[in-house]
Amino acid sequence: MTAPAASWRQYLNRRMLICVFLGFTSGLPLFILLSLLQAWLAKSGLNVKTLGLFALVMFPYTWKFVWSPLMDRFHFGRMGRRRGWMFFTQLLLFLGIGAMGMLDPLTEVGAIAFMASVVAFLSASQDIAIDAFRREILPDEELGLGSAIHVNAYKLSGMVPGALSLVLADRMPWPTVFWVTAAFMLPGLLCSLLVKEPKVYGTPPKSLSDAVVLPFREFIARGGWGNALWVLGFIFLYKLGDSMATALATKFYIDLGFSMTEIGVVSKTTSLWASVAGGILGGIWMVKLGINRGLWVFGVLQAIPILGFAWLAHVGADLPVLAAVIGLEAFGVGLGTTAFVAYIMRETDPRYTATQFALFTSLMAVPRTFVNSSVGYIVAETGWLNFFLICFVLALPGMLMLPRIAPWNEKPVESQTKKA
């Protein structure tokens, strides 16, 4: 009885509350690009191939490790490194998201692509600072719980551009919708002003050269090139199938015949509660399972719902089926992402948080950016049903790497740096 009580106290502490605000703020720009931007362009008449290519605007998520050393090396005076970079990027994101919605999708597609790329760059930069901040304030024993809270809030943020904004789009002009959506960045910006700068572990990089070289040197030296390649390969493959399956989800729902309001209210609301349940259960379950076993169990529960999309493609525009499929997908992915993020945090040395975390999450974003850009062409050739079956098969290679990456019975090695 004592252990569960301690677990719940960990959920309710100040660090977890910070994870809620920053997780929400971290996810919002991404879901704006995935849901709101996609719906806006689809309603303007853009074809599925062009919509698929818009995934390329999110290339900054895959390259953020390139400029992450700058965020380890430089700071903003009294605000410090993490708080300063968080506040700066959040303010620019608020302005950039609102400005993007003022463009005309019929005549300014190029300008929209440019602004979307800017938003993606700022969002990726914000993620570098937030991920580093979160890793530095969480003790090792709270990595699983903190990841669950962060992932849950991250998914919850998708309700704004994926549900509220879509409903508003049926009732008001698109520019207004974008500014209302951008305003949801403000709570995170306020959080960045109120929190304290985390303690610095070890010696901060004394030069830009140190900030670039030392994080990569430590990662390679930890287990050699072979181990490093296994870790990077696993990070790339673990969520490949799910990422592809949901790349054009909004377009898929529209093609089946669902209205914007149905997509916003039914599918996205179902996703909300299923995601909340998955995130909470994932955090509690991981206390007993541990990160290694969580990757196994949650990985299976993450892959199976992909077949639900194939089922929906077969039965057509059926609202109860839509709710069931989206709920199952959100629940499974909520579990899988919780374990995956905790694993990435465990692999990060707290001395080089921003750069190493950026490297790992950049690789995690490769499928979403470059692989997903081909999704439109695959769908055009195979149809939705066969496409989802392909996605399910692509979910398997990452699972097959688990005996090497995270053995079921092996206890994780304690991190080198302990937190107070």
Walk me through this protein's architecture.
The chain is mainly α and 420 residues long. 77% of the residues lie in helices and 0% in strands. The chain is built from 21 helices and no strands. It has helices at residues 2-11, 14-43, 48-53, 60-63, 68-73, 80-100, 109-137, 143-157, 159-169, 174-182, 186-194, 208-237, 240-245, 249-256, 260-303, 306-315, 319-346, 353-371, 375-394, 396-400, 402-405. Helix 7 (109-137) runs antiparallel to helix 18 and helix 8 (143-157) packs antiparallel against helix 17 (319-346). The radius of gyration is 20 Å and the shape is globular. Residues 1-8 and 413-420 have low confidence and may be disordered.
List keywords for this structure.
disordered N terminus, mainly alpha, 420 residues, AmpG_permease/AT-1, transport, 21 helices, MFS, transmembrane, 0% strand
Summed up, what is this model?
The protein has 420 residues and is mostly helical.
Determine the number of helices (DSSP H or I, runs of at least 4 residues).
21
Q: What composes the largest sheet?
A: none
Mean pLDDT across every amino acid position: 84
Q: Termini separation (Å)?
A: 26 Å
Which structural class best describes the helix and strand composition? Answer: mainly alpha
- Using DSSP, what is the number of strands? 0
Helix percent reads: over 70%
- What is the string of SSEs from the N terminus onward? HHHHHHHHHHHHHHHHHHHHH
The geometry reads as globular
DSSP strand (E) fraction?
under 5%
Task: Indicate the low-confidence ranges by residue numbers.
Answer: 1-8, 413-420
Round the Cα radius of gyration to an integer and report it. Answer: 20 Å
